[in-house]
Amino acid sequence: MSDTRQTVQHPPPAEARLIGAHMPTSGGLYKSLTLGREIDCSAVQLFTCSPRQWNHATLKQEDVKRFLDAKHDTGIVFTVAHDSYLINLAAPSEEILWKSQAAFRSELERAEMLDIGWLVTHMGAHLDQGEDEALERLAQSVTQILDETDKLGYKVGIALETTAGQGTGLGWRFEQLGRILAAVGDHTRLGVCLDTCHVFVAGYDLRGQKAYELTWSEFDREIGYNKLKVIHANDAKKPLGSRVDRHEHIGNGEIGAEPFARLMTDPRLAHVPVIVETPDSDTMHAENVARLRRLASGQSPKISVTVQLYGHLSDVNSGEYLTLEMPFFATVADVAELLAKRDKRLENIRANCRFAVGEEYTDLTRKVYDGAVVAVLPPVSGG
Amino acid sequence: MAIARVTDDIIDSQQTELLVSSDVNGAICTFVGKVRNHSRGKSVEFLEYKAFVPLAEKELMRIAGEAETRWGVNVAIIHRFGRLSIGEASVVISVGSPHRAEAFAACQWCIDTLKETVPIWKRETGPDGSFWIEGDESLKTGCC
User: Fold this and answer.
1) What CA–CA distance (Å, rounded) separates B82 from A215?
2) Which of A110, A247, A262, A291 is catalytic?
3) Quick one: pLDDT at residue A53?
């Protein structure tokens, strides 16, 4: 079933990697692309309608056109839609199953109109009514809808997403996805989306060479690399095996930066687009996308911070700047701590000094970025 | 419009006064901070001021702007950095106002506030060596 010979001979250069984020669509679906371009996305994921409602009007022609034009203008070649959270294609209740299938057909229709490549969906939940039966219902739903849409000439594919295993959700074990793929049969429009946070909290460790390889070989055995169409890159707030789905910024969570460094330079995954669904999308998507790009280019998952010491502290390095290597998620407090360890004369700066990043006073909780200049300012004596 | 600058040039306090002079202002109050030859019981030969220039200018501007708003006056603050000899001006604050009460008050407030918040540090050098002044403390320094 799996084709481990699908090691890519010529992985694309780091700049050509398709990396992006789940982008907001308020103001129009096309905004996901224009905003995505602003934060350097070469791939974008979006909801094509509100994910918390059942009923949706058909897309207006002008919205479709704006989206297609934006695709052309921004050059964002890879787009993926995420379906509504309400859809449960494995639902034990006939009513919900029917509603879900209808909604899913609409999702595919919208994605097809928007020339989106893949529709990511969760595998539904069995709601304590039997996992096997649920998986069968899911397989049937998928088979039926693929057939129907084949006849309509659809190009958009369905990507089943690995889940965290919360509640009675399906898809938290690779073999469950494997079963669906086997039941439906090989189909070019059927694939899988792997979410790093989900698989981690579901119990698949990614930390360290050994665990990483073990997880991926299981993935390959049960599902197959060639079925992997999208990766959701999210760190995890909760520990391994907790089955609690809370996304965290890349490198800041329980997974940590090192597995993402591996992922982004893994030749077996080089052609798979990567999408972040990390929190604080307004302020942090750009940062998370940038972190992944750094990692893809083989750069260290550490950032470089310049420190300027003022007042009597300037004696510490004879008035010269200091350069520190900090982890991704470092704050000004972390910088102060590292300085304190480095030199006894800097022991008390946290308590006694003010800090500035760039040209602004800041508090200790502020995160520092690559290239930041941190000024350590003892009590002043101007005038 | 408030004026605030950090410079390593000699400050001309007459020029600074001109910046806040206008036909509506009947009072100009100028504070000149000068280098004196003694500090905390020690003799001083010269001073050096080091500044975090961009932030110092921002802070001086903030202070000048606040004073202008609070007292309805015109304010110019020039602070010098680098090496200064005894008698040279380290800071000049000029306040122009229709009447003197506001001019005095704003000027005092500016120098008092500036001394608390602006990122500029003074190092005094005398026969006993060099000392960074920080808040209430005087810290001996190796380098000169």
Assistant:
1) 61
2) A247
3) 80
Domains of chain A: 14-296 (3.20.20.150), 302-377 (3.10.20.30)
In A, minimum Cα distance to B57 occurs at A359
Residue B42 lies in a domain: no
Number of Cβ within 10 Å of residue A208's Cβ equals 12
Chain A, chain B: beta-carbon pairs less than 8 Å apart? 81
Mutation to test the A interface, candidates B52, B107, B130, most A Cβ within 10 Å: B52
Q: What is the pLDDT of residues A274-327, one digit of tens each?
A: 999 999 888 889 989 989 998 998 877 778 999 999 999 999 988 899 999 887
pLDDT at B3 over 70: yes
Q: Is A247 a catalytic residue?
A: yes
List the single residue in B with minimal CA-CA distance to A315.
Answer: B143
Q: pLDDT tens across A175-208, in order?
A: 999 999 999 999 999 999 999 999 999 999 999 9
Range(s) of the domain holding residue B63: 3-34+53-119
Residue B28 in any domain: the answer is: yes
CA distances for A233 relative to A22, A74, A230, angstroms: 11, 22, 9
Please tell me the total count of domains within chain B.
Answer: 1
Residue range B62-81: mean pLDDT, rounded: 97
Q: Are B91 and B111 in contact (CB under 8 A)?
A: yes
Query: Is the full-model pTM beyond 0.90?
Result: no
Catalytic, A52? Answer yes
Residue B14 belongs to a domain with what CATH number? 3.90.1170.40
Average pLDDT (A340-357) is 93
Distances (CA, A) of A126 to A40, A88, A119, A166, A296: 39, 9, 21, 11, 38
Confidence band (pLDDT; 50, 70, 90) for A3?
Answer: very low
Query: How close B115 comes to chain A (CA, Å)?
Result: 5
Beta bridge partners of B32: B92
> Inter-chain contact A383–B51, Cβ cutoff 8 Å?
no
- The ipTM of this complex is 0.89
Number of helical H runs and strand E runs in chain B: 3, 11
